[in-house]
Amino acid sequence: MSSRSLNKVALIGNLTRDPELRYTPQGTAVAQFGLATNRDWVTANGEKKEEVQYHRIIAWSKLAELCSQLLSKGSKVFVEGRIVYRQFEGKDGTQKNITEIVMDNMIVLTPKSPTGQSTASDEDKPEEKKSKDALKGKKADDSAQVEENKTNEDIDDEEIPF
Predict the structure, then answer these.
(1) 50-94, pLDDT tens digit by residue?
(2) Is-contact 76 13, C-beta < 8 A?
(3) Annotated region Disordered: where (predicted)?
(4) Are 104 and 67 in contact (CB under 8 A)?
(5) Which residues contact 137 (CB under 8 A, 6 or more apart)?
C-alpha cells in the first residue's frame, strides 16, 4: 500500500484577465484565467514590502462554465484545487515547463452590481450588504450566489446555474 499524500492549494486573489472558455473535441468545457495574489510584510528595518505572485488557473466541466459566467478581470475569488506541472515542446522546439492550479472549488468574493456584472470594489456598497457578502458563501459547483435583495421577479432564467 502506498503512503498517503496531499496536493491541495487554497488561494484568494484577483483575476488578471477574463476567463477564457473553450471546449475539448469531446465537448468538455475548460476555462483558463490568471489569478494574482499579494503578500505584504515589513523588513527588520521597518521597510514595507509587497510581493505579487501570478497563478495560472484551470477549471473543467460545469465549474469552467460557472467561471465564465460569474468571473471577470478584477474579480476577487477564493480558489481551491491542486498543483499540476506539465512539460511541452514550444513552437521553437524547446522544452517548456508550466505550473497550473486545477480548480476543484471556488467562492466568488466580489459582490455583483445591480446590472449583474462583478464589481472590482465594494466601497460604495451599504454596510449591511458588505456584511452579508463577507459571510462564507456556498461552493460554486453546488449553487451560484444570487443577491439576497432580489425578488423572484428580478431573477432572469439565464442567471440560474441549473
Answers:
(1) 999 999 999 999 999 999 999 999 999 999 999 999 988 888 999
(2) yes
(3) 110-162
(4) no
(5) 107, 108, 145
DSSP calls for 87-149: EEE-TTS-EEEEEEEEEEEEEE-SPBPTTS-B-S--TTS-HHHHHHHHS----TTT-----TT
Which H or E run contains 82?
A: strand 76-89
Check residue 33 and report its DSSP letter. Answer: E
* Kind of pairing between the strands at 76-89 and 95-108: antiparallel
Do residues 144 and 66 make contact, with C-beta atoms less than 8 angstroms apart? Answer: yes
HSE-up of residue 108 (Cα within 13 Å, Cβ side): 27
Residue 30's Cα: distance from chain center in Å? 13
What kind of fold does domain 9-159 have according to CATH?
Answer: OB fold (Dihydrolipoamide Acetyltransferase, E2P) (2.40.50)
Residue type, position 24, single letter: T
Which residue ranges make up each domain of the chain? 9-159
Cell of 20: 477564457
Assessment of whether the complete model's pTM goes beyond 0.85: no
